[in-house]
Amino acid sequence: MAVPIDPDRMPTDDERRATERLAAERAPEGNAPAPEKQRGPVLLRRGQVQPTTTDQRLLDTRGPSDWVHTDPWRVLRIQAEFVEGFGLLAEIGKAVSVFGSARTPPGAPDYVAGERIGAALASAGYAVITGGGPGAMEAVNKGCCEAGGTSVGLGIELPFEQKLNDWVDIGINFRYFFARKTMFVKYAQAFVVLPGGFGTLDELFEALVLVQTGKVTSFPVVLFDSSYWSGLMLWLEQTVAREKMINESDLELIRITDDVDELVEIIRQSERS
User: Structure pTM?
Assistant: First the structure.
């Protein structure tokens, strides 16, 4: 009976020698070819050949379970996250991704602004997509939900416990940041960015790079709360642009406002252009 083997484990020395002996026995005398096996689209030769088939290893219930933590298995998990995300969000219609700090407490000015933004976007016919967490994300989901809009939350597995907030109507939790980020961009007509920390800045600059490089078009990036973002804009203008690290025109990719109605109008104008 075949010895059960991890499908992605390298063969042992004994297994390599057994395979090589078998190939030598079957080869014409004086002209022994290198042993080889086709494993799906993959060609294996010499010591890489395994003595069992993929089907044998699949159907054998014995052996170690380490394979569930290997990179090939992770690829399937990644694929599943994309399939699940695409299936969940494909029919939500027009949407805007809104980012902001998870640390914003209820009742704070940024929280109240998030509620107003969520409600205004819902009234304008947009679903809102947030990271699904607490703080500013919760505020936007709440405002949208209370206004009768579609409130979406895309959560992420973190070292500390964080569940989707109670105002999310459609939610999914991701293992991988890059799969989650794809969903934020693919199904949104715009990004709105409330005050936040590293995570918010990461999402902001990733969006700007996608627009700058033409990966997405007609995609406004709107910063809300000029007092919070003014220092960043000053640095971009007086240091980054002045040192020619970006073009002056790249600064025009960013819009800043303190007015919720203006924010919605910027997004509407982008759709019409």
Answer: 0.77
